[in-house]
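User: Sequence recovery, please. Input:
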């Protein structure tokens, strides 16, 4: 694994851990200026957020929700790209869960692009 891939993996892992541990404050140092986020909803294309503050506000809202439980299935990185495959639960029933993936781009140690997808 080259140096860029190691940095990307570290940043993407820290990003995911903020959601798993419900620590939105841990996102502050991870989001870059000019970040672009495409959310999983609403279908079919998802909402688009542009700029560091808009992305940070959206992601912090999710990370702070005690009703949501994220679990990583896999975190992968190569160069400036990172992939997080995850499971999300919001209740005990099998109907209260979904699997998805985030495709991330990291530049200068900060996330500058995030695109979320879920299994339909």
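Assistant: Recovered sequence (120 residues):
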């Amino acid at each position: 694994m080259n140096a860029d891939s190691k940095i990307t993996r570290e940043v993407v892992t820290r990003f995911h851990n903020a959601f798993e541990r419900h620590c939105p404050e841990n996102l502050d140092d991870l989001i870059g200026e000019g970040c672009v986020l495409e959310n999983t909803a609403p279908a079919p294309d998802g909402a688009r957020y542009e700029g560091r503050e808009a992305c940070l506000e959206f992601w912090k809202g999710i990370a702070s929700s005690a009703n949501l439980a994220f679990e990583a299935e896999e975190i992968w990185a190569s160069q400036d790209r990172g992939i997080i495959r995850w499971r999300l639960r919001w209740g005990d029933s099998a109907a209260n869960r979904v699997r998805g993936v985030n495709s991330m781009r990291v530049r200068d140690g900060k996330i500058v692009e995030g695109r979320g997808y879920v299994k339909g």
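The chain has a mean pLDDT of 96.
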